[in-house]
Amino acid sequence: MNNTSKTDWSKIDAMTDKDIDTSDIPPLSDDFFVKAQLRDCASLATVVIHVDPETLAWFQLQGEVAERQMAAALRIYAEAHKYTDNSRKLA
Q1: Crossing angle of helices 53-60/66-81, nearest 10°?
Q2: What global pTM score does this model have?
Q3: Rg of the chain in Å (alpha carbons)
């Protein structure tokens, strides 16, 4: 598998918010915000996992909140797959 990006990252980095075309994104309705949930892990367990260097570097660029963001991302993934796969249910 070739992981070489063809993206011109210097061009992306130079873009401002005004340069981003969001015309194909529908506006968020009030209903969206009514259903929105804050996802924050109140308590975390300490574990050792293997993460590819690029993913770890991206999270680390987020600063002090990197570990909490990684935990939130894992939680969102687990919740999204809770009823769609054959994984064992938590006791």
Answers
A1: 120
A2: 0.47
A3: 18
